[in-house]
Amino acid sequence: MRNVNGINFASQIPENEKLVPTISQNQLLARFIYDPKNGRFSRLVRVEEPDILSAFSGEVLEDGYSYISVAGGKYRADALAYLYMTGKMPSGDLVHINGDKSDDSWVNLGEKGFFEA
Questions:
Q1: Domain extent at residue 60
Q2: What is the C-alpha to C-alpha distance for residues 71 and 20, in angstroms, rounded to an integer?
Q3: How many domains does the chain have?
Q4: Where is 81: in which H helix or E strand?
Q5: pLDDT band at 5; cut points 50, 70, 90
Q6: Which of 113, 108, 112, 106 shows the shortest CA–CA distance to 96?
Q7: pLDDT tens for each residue of 72-102
Q8: CATH number of residue 25's parent domain
Q9: Rounded-to-integer distance, Cα 50 and Cα 92, Å
Q10: Three-state secondary structure call for residue 72
Q11: Which domain of life is it from (predicted)?
Q12: Nearest Cα to Cα of residue 78 among 112, 43, 54
């Protein structure tokens, strides 16, 4: 925790921007099904037998992005979609091609550097 002139900087970071442990693709696959066509995640819920799917998992916050809580952290859904499809977390921000930050369909997501000239 960084403390400068009596100010605790860790407490100044919004909760949804604090670093969280990195989730693996296997952990994600064990908990969710991602539909690349509509960009929605469904949580796998164990209710006796067999496993069933819950409704859409996540929430859209004031910044316009969808967030999902999983494995002890809160992640942007676009980053989880990237992890689900590629096996790795994005190295930077993702671009929502149509401008809708809550549209996490696979065709709407791109790596930022790819779209910069």
A1: 3-115
A2: 9
A3: 1
A4: helix 77-86
A5: very low
A6: 108
A7: 788 899 999 999 999 999 988 899 999 999 9
A8: 3.90.75
A9: 38
A10: coil
A11: Bacteria
A12: 112
Tokens of 86: 């590629």
32: Cβ contacts below 8 Å, ≥ 6 apart? 41, 42, 43, 44, 57, 68, 70, 80, 84
* pLDDT at residue 11 in the model: 41
Closest CA to 56 of 64, 48, 45, 46: 45
Token duo for residue 33: 């099904």
Give the C-alpha separation, 40 to 78, whole Å.
10
pLDDT in tens, 6-59: 444 344 445 555 445 588 999 999 989 999 999 999 888 654 444 444 445 577
With contact defined as beta carbons under 8 Å apart, do 39 and 106 qualify?
yes
